[in-house]
Amino acid sequence: MNNRYMSNNTDRNATWRVGVYCRLSKDDELTGESASISNQRDILVNYCQSQGWQVVDVFQDDGYTGLNTDRPDLQRLLKACEKGLVNLVITKDQSRLGRNHVQTGFLMEEFFPKHGVRYIALYDNVDTFDGDNEIAPFKNVLNEMYSRDISKKVHASYHLQATKGKFTGVVPPLGYQKDPEEKGHLLIDDETAPIVQKIFQWAVDDHGINFISRELERQQIPCPSWWHRERGLRTYYTKWEKKDPENGKYVWDESYLKSLLMNPVYCGDMASQKRYYRFKIGNQGDKAPEDWITVRNTHEAIIPQDVFALVQAKMKGRKRQTEQGEYSMFAGLLRCAECGGALTLKKTHTKDQHEVYTCSTYIHKGKAHCTQHRVDADDLYDAVLTRIQECAKAVTGDGTELEDRVKELCEEDTQGHRDSLEKLVSKQKDRLETLDRLIAKLYDDLINDKITESVFDKMLEKTQKEQADIKKELSQNESVLNTEEKLDAQSQQWIDDISEYADIKELDANLLNRLISKIIISEPQEKDGKENYRRTPETVTMEIHFNLKPIPELGTIERGSGSHK
């Protein structure tokens, strides 16, 4: 007898609370109605009723592979087992539970026994209550071998369909819909095709991805995930939709827009096999466009070939790098104090072209989400160099002068650190209020049948987890603010290290990364009547966090004071 499979519950007449689990993957659909979700459910529910068992819930994953446990309703079932809501799990056969012999074996040998759960695979005559299941591990291995064989056949079929120019995806590209009369053929979607045409026209007019994203948001054109939900194709919500249920649907992802503009499907060509795939692991990265399988003129084009080619040339021409092909020396160090985004190096469009750093959130999303935080590259260079020299010279004095200067720096640092922490606390409180509103809306949507209970449970769990994480961090930050920390001048190691830079004349990337962990750029801002952010002064505050002393150094940068060298 193989005791590893036995349930902790040894009373056959116990009250069994059953979780019926059904699964069907795209591969399994080939086997017909006998394997369908409804067929599995009817068989198992009828069997439970004949045994007089209470069916707590039916858990079903339709369209999910059995090669991993990343399945929504399986995870919901396992949580029900952990909470003691279910003490018997039943499937039609072992392959419904999973086809990965390692993960399925773990569930049967460890997870179910640990939580006192009995498992039955009805058609395989497996019942962990009996314990006599020596053949079960071999069935798991055979199920995986079967899945590997099916995977090869399915992907060979996909490859063959790709060479014929057939669409093999689940969700058609924006602007198209599946042809109900010809499998693998695409038809133009009259409702969304004009959106695609707008996007390409903006690209033809020399507008970049960031402009297009902001313009789509300004015109309140919903993003693809909204269209998918409206048509019952997907239940996915973007991070912007989760953050702002009312207006988040108008925020488009830049990487999606770039992919859209590069997709030859819009000029009538079908491009497939774009990613590398490995059994049990899944997709492993993108292939280069020249490695795609592309078939010309397979369906009606939304964008003419010459326009598509022009957009590709313009996109290629917009890629920027320095003349030396190197990154900025401040790369990875500059952060926006308000949104936390990186500051990006750009060139101005004025006659005296020069380089400036600007908040990436402002660049990508516009003034509705942050302000420019623009800093002239030369001004920043001079300010940072001066600040390092000042700190280094401050510790080269002696006696009381040295001690007083270090104390003065520490007092400045502490206040700057406190200001940053207060801003963060304020943002965390605002986010908690937003999450409270999101939860209230979720309940409304559930009551009004706008979302299913399954979608509600998933989103509520994610939202509550984010709430818990923010509350924990908020409590820690408020504790720091409420504690009067006394700093002294006992940083002798910092004094010894920084003093060697008293006479530096120029900066480079190695030196900056040696001395500095991050530089935070902030500027006071206010919202106008249209809920847009607006910068108010002509100065920004620079807060340097040194690697050698984890306390910020403050300084103010006057805009336009640099030499643009």
Automatic annotation (TrEMBL):
PANTHER family: DNA RECOMBINASE-RELATED, DNA-INVERTASE FROM LAMBDOID PROPHAGE. Residues 17-165 form the Resolvase/invertase-type recombinase catalytic domain. Residues 173-321 form the Recombinase domain. Signal peptide: none annotated. It comes from Blautia luti. GO terms for molecular function: DNA binding; DNA strand exchange activity. It comes from the Bacteria. SMART domains: Resolvase. InterPro entries: DNA_bind_recomb_sf, DNA_bind_recombinase_dom, DUF4368, Resolv_N, Resolvase-like_N_sf, SSR_resolvase, Zn_ribbon_recom_dom. This is Resolvase/invertase-type recombinase catalytic domain-containing protein.
